[in-house]
DNA sequence: CATATTTTGTACCGTTTCGCATTAAATTCT
DNA sequence: AGAATTTAATGCGAAACGGTACAAAATATG
């Protein structure tokens, strides 16, 4: 399913690598301020090639968002390894997020979705749909782990897995915004630690 | 200090009302996607008048952000009325926020700062500065109330007012993002309730 | 009333924007 | 080898962009 020789002239670029470069442009500038010329320069692709391969600017943007979402979900599942205590799971989630969020040149980039899709969500339905789905998928994955924690006794029976998951996500949303607002790594790590403590606090383990 | 008769032709518009209309445009479209024509149409002001009164687009945007920040700080101080229990204070903060965030035509607008300034913060230092200051001022105001709560015994001595305040803000940040992502009022209210419960949970009152 | 000063409205400028039309190049199929 | 097909590259073009020059209008001052 990989190397089906297609008929015409072969592509001189790797679609995945191109998407990654386009993603970085959107990440820094946002969707609206990223011009096709910016994207063309960053990907070393002419505008017509970009257009032919990915569609218009919004299509390309949605592609990068979808890839980012999938990468995030994979990293989340890794961090939530159920053989580790819930506390460690959450700490790993935040640690991994901060590693991504703080990687910026002039200023930290935060989260691609929260940092750049949120602003477009009001007027672009497709963006709003991806953003909404990304957030709720994220919640859902954490919720699964929370439910397991209740079953195992890591959390008391009275704990509400769905709500705890949403609050765990809330801390991440805040880290994403604050990173982009210029908060220091130390501050963000302190918030992450306190978040873990508060959410796992009811666990007497 | 109000009605100093200035020399030339008087202004035919109210600066504050104009800023409010411009703010609405930025709120829906974001800074980058809001054109001077959009702003001119919404404010019923010609572009040169806009420019003369508020400077360039970024200046105008920063003005609206600053006004929004001040309004928010005032509303926050009101909600944190120290004659009420901490629980009620937090609930009022979130209730007031949701009333603002859910007011949208097609989709909910969320928070002007988190929804539209975050994306510009990376490349526009002045926006990043206002956003950072807004977030930390907000944290600080809640922190004051948290410290009072510890003094009064609403929270245990072991509670960390600064961190609890930052986590209380985190819930707000999440509400802001989720509103714009299309979450329902019911969902957001449930998150707010759970947030209050979790943060005030250590209070045995 | 004349002058100075500020705001308003029209029109315009150079640039950038997105998207596409067209042609050249590279590969497979016959 | 030649036809068919897909991609690459150049360049165009109409529209939108932010910003400003300039003249007309409206007020205060002398």
Automatic annotation (TrEMBL), chains A, B:
Residue intervals of the HTH tetR-type domain: 12-72
DNA-binding region in chain numbering: 35-54
Matches recorded under Gene3D superfamilies: Homeodomain-like, Tetracycline Repressor, domain 2
Pfam families attached to this UniProt entry: TetR_C_13, TetR_N
Keywords: DNA-binding, Transcription, Transcription regulation
Source species, domain of life: Bacteria
Protein name (record): TetR/AcrR family transcriptional regulator
Species this protein is from: Rhizobium croatiense
């Amino acid at each position: 399913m990989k190397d089906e020789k297609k008929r015409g002239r072969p592509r001189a670029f790797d679609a995945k690598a191109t998407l990654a470069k386009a993603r970085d442009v959107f990440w820094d500038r946002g969707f609206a301020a990223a011009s096709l010329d910016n994207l063309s320069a960053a990907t070393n692709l002419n505008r017509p090639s970009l257009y032919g391969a990915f569609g218009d600017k919004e299509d390309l943007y949605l592609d990068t968002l979808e890839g980012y979402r999938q990468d995030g979900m994979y990293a989340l599942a890794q961090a939530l390894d159920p053989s580790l205590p819930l506390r460690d799971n959450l700490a790993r989630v935040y640690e991994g997020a901060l590693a991504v969020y703080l990687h910026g040149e002039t200023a930290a980039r935060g989260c691609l979705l929260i940092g750049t899709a949120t602003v477009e969500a009001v007027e672009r339905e497709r963006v709003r749909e991806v953003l909404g789905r990304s957030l709720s998928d994220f919640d859902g994955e954490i919720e699964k782990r929370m439910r397991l924690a209740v079953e195992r006794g890591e959390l008391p029976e009275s704990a509400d897995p769905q709500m705890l998951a949403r609050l765990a996500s809330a801390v991440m949303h805040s880290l994403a915004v604050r990173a982009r607002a210029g908060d220091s790594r130390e501050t963000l790590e302190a918030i992450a630690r306190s978040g873990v403590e508060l959410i796992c606090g009811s666990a007497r383990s």
